[in-house]
Every structure is written in structure tokens, then in C-alpha cells.
């Protein structure tokens, strides 16, 4: 199956379809099985992208050293939120590639 771009309407319909509890359960089962491999791929992608290099470590030290407790807590919340978003975005990209690879293999 050739790669193609999806319209917003197609993606919206697909998201609606996968919102079914039974499909979510199946996806969770598959993901639990693949978790170690997916974690390795995610870590490699984040490392190669430079997301957790020197700049990240510097920000961790800056936040940890913040003398004001409220500002330190705010910095931690912000960093966790940003890292969560980043992990989700990279995870979605990996998921797309996994889906494409599975589709290619069906055509063999």
C-alpha cells in the first residue's frame, strides 16, 4: 500500500472510530506487549533529536536550584508538561510508522 497523506476529516473519523472501548482495550494489550521495544525506540528518537542533552540537563539544574518553592514547583510542572507533550508527539510519529510498516507487510 503506497504512503499517502490523510485529510483532517479522515483523521477525525479515525479518532472517533478508535475511541470505541473495545478497540482501546485491544490497543492497550498490543502496546503492553510492545512496551519495551517502543520505549527503546522512543528513547533513541529523543536522544537523536537532542531533546535530553546538555540544554535539558542545564534546565533541570536551574529548576532544582530555584530558591523560591512556588517558582520551583511551577518550573517542574512546566517541564513535566513539555516533556509529556514531546513524548506524545514522538510516540505518535512512531505509531504512524509502525502502522505504515504493518500495512506494507500485509501487501507482501
Largest sheet: none
pLDDT < 50 runs, ≥5 residues: none
Strands, count: 0
**Shape verdict:** elongated
**Series of H and E elements:** HHHH
Report the sheet-strand fraction: under 5%
Q: N-to-C terminal Cα separation, in Å?
A: 10 Å
Helical content band? over 70%
The Cα radius of gyration reads 18 Å
Instruction: Compute the number of helices.
Output: 4
Structural class: mainly alpha
Mean pLDDT: 86
Secondary structure layout plus pairing:
Elements: H1 8-18, H2 21-48, H3 54-64, H4 69-106
Helix pairs in contact: 2-4
Account of the protein in words:
With 108 residues, the chain is an all-alpha fold. It has a domain of 71 residues. The chain has 4 helices and no strands.
Describe the structure concisely for a colleague:
81% of the residues lie in helices and 0% in strands.
Can you tag this structure with a few keywords?
single chain; 108 residues; mainly alpha; 0% strand; elongated
Amino acid at each position: 500500500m503506497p504512503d499517502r497523506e490523510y485529510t483532517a476529516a479522515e483523521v477525525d473519523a479515525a479518532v472517533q472510530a478508535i475511541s470505541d472501548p473495545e478497540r482501546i482495550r485491544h490497543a492497550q494489550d498490543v502496546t503492553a506487549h510492545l512496551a519495551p521495544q517502543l520505549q527503546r525506540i522512543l528513547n533513541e528518537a529523543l536522544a537523536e533529536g537532542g531533546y535530553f542533552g546538555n540544554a535539558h540537563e542545564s534546565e533541570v539544574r536551574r529548576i532544582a536550584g530555584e530558591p523560591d518553592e512556588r517558582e520551583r514547583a511551577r518550573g517542574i510542572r512546566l517541564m513535566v508538561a513539555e516533556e509529556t507533550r514531546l513524548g506524545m508527539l514522538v510516540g505518535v510519529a512512531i505509531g504512524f510508522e509502525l502502522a505504515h510498516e504493518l500495512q506494507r507487510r500485509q501487501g507482501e
